[in-house]
Amino acid sequence: MTTPPVGRRERKKAATRQAIADAALRLFLERGYDQVSIREIADAADVSTTTVFKHFSGKEALVFDQDQERESELVAAVRGRAAGQSVLDALRQHVLDTWLPIAAHPQRAGFVDLVESTPALRAYSERMWTGYTDALAAAIADEARADQDDLACAALARFVLEIPTLAQGREDRRAAVETIFDLLTHGWEPPGDRS
Amino acid sequence: MTTPPVGRRERKKAATRQAIADAALRLFLERGYDQVSIREIADAADVSTTTVFKHFSGKEALVFDQDQERESELVAAVRGRAAGQSVLDALRQHVLDTWLPIAAHPQRAGFVDLVESTPALRAYSERMWTGYTDALAAAIADEARADQDDLACAALARFVLEIPTLAQGREDRRAAVETIFDLLTHGWEPPGDRS
DNA sequence: ATTGAAAAGTTGACTCGTTGCACTTTTTAA
DNA sequence: TTAAAAAGTGCAACGAGTCAACTTTTCAAT
């Protein structure tokens, strides 16, 4: 039988994967995403280009390594919310508590800059987020006792996942998140006059 | 001065552009997007591959030829709405009147199938729509007498542009559009119990 | 009409992401 | 011990897209 914790094989596999991801991120941060070729990354990690693609589905995936957890956290925030808290408020709190700190973390500033300044990575990142739509929609529908494919729940999920994109570049990101959640909670109405 | 209607030069340019687009669409419909190479399209239109890229920014752009008008129509729907009609209602009407018929038109069925069944085209199409966000947001903000970069207006614009994607694959598309506009108008609330 | 500049098109070679194929190594099971 | 399955690797190739040099066409100003 296979040893439950790890086999030597899978340890080596994980090590190679990590070496590739590390080399890629380092080179990207040094010289920019478009200025680094897969072949250079492969050389830096001392593997062949084929091996890179055995571990990662494409060049963009090298940057977003273990972002599968986000989906789970999102679903968990809805399912495990405090008693009496509405689904929308749970999502609002999760976004405020989880996404804002990450974006503000100085360690990740270079990483965030890299993604923001590279169109291909921006696009990939957005597709990643929208990829969570179905899972989040299912969780919302479940908690709201609606049909599994309820359209309003699916739309809400999609809209919540657009929030990071929309809040980007705003001076006060916390206020931006609040504004959008207010819109989703109460509906849109023409704001007060500016004159 | 240049002849206002057309010069021979620009007519020829437009003709080759059209020849390329026609050849591309025909081949895509016949054999599928991924099974047709740029060189084949160039050959079919009797030009070189570089000429193809002189006219179109990329392979996906061959499919979405003159979809710049959509943006103008969208903005016009908001700006030229009937007196007393709210911005949101104007958008609702525009979506119902303009987008649903196009999708239902039997002539375009093959085209719609092509886009829906090709991941690269789906992604490109969505990025096209979201590209209209800024223009629509500006029009909404203007009509609502809000600041030009008002976040709620930007969010509303983005959400409206997501509607085609969300309504896709639903049996009753009209009802789907109405449901999402109701969500945007009044806010989300847990739907009635299904039991 | 002539001519000269600008635009359109062509060619061919090149880069880069990505994949298919063949080969080697490791692991597993008999 | 050994055969076969699985995993990893490298090479060569394909398609998208770019670049630079060159030819042709068009336009406009003499």
Name the descriptors:
Tetracycline Repressor, domain 2, DNA-binding, 195 residues, 2 domains, mainly alpha, Arc Repressor Mutant, subunit A
How does the SSE layout of this entry go?
2 copies of one chain form a homodimer.
Chain A: H1 8-31, H2 38-45, H3 49-55, H4 69-79, H5 87-104, H6 109-116, H7 119-131, H8 133-143, H9 151-167, H10 173-186
The structure holds a DNA duplex (30 and 30 nucleotides).
Protein name (chains A, B): TetR family transcriptional regulator
Pfam families (chains A, B): TetR_C_14, TetR_N
GO molecular function (chains A, B): DNA-binding transcription factor activity; transcription cis-regulatory region binding
Could you describe the 3D structure shown?
With 195 residues, chain A is mainly alpha-helical. Chain A has 2 domains: 8-59, Homeodomain-like (Arc Repressor Mutant, subunit A, Orthogonal Bundle), CATH 1.10.10; 69-186, Tetracycline Repressor, domain 2 (Orthogonal Bundle), CATH 1.10.357.10. In chain A, 67% of the residues lie in helices and 0% in strands. The first copy, chain A, has helices spanning 8-31, 38-45, 49-55, 69-79, 87-104, 109-116, 119-131, 133-143, 151-167, 173-186. Chain A is globular and about 55 Å long. Chains A and B meet through helix 9 and helix 10 of A and helix 9 and helix 10 of B. Chain A binds a DNA duplex (30 and 30 nucleotides) through residues 2, 7-9, 12-13, 16, 37-39, 47-51, 53-54, 58-59. Chains A, B: Keywords: DNA-binding, Transcription, Transcription regulation. Chains A, B: One of its GO terms (molecular function) is DNA-binding transcription factor activity. Chains A, B: InterPro entries: DNA-bd_HTH_TetR-type_CS (IPR023772), Homeodomain-like_sf (IPR009057), HTH-type_TetR-like_transc_reg (IPR050109), HTH_TetR (IPR001647), MftR_C (IPR041347). Chains A, B: This is TetR family transcriptional regulator. Chains A, B: It comes from Actinomadura darangshiensis.
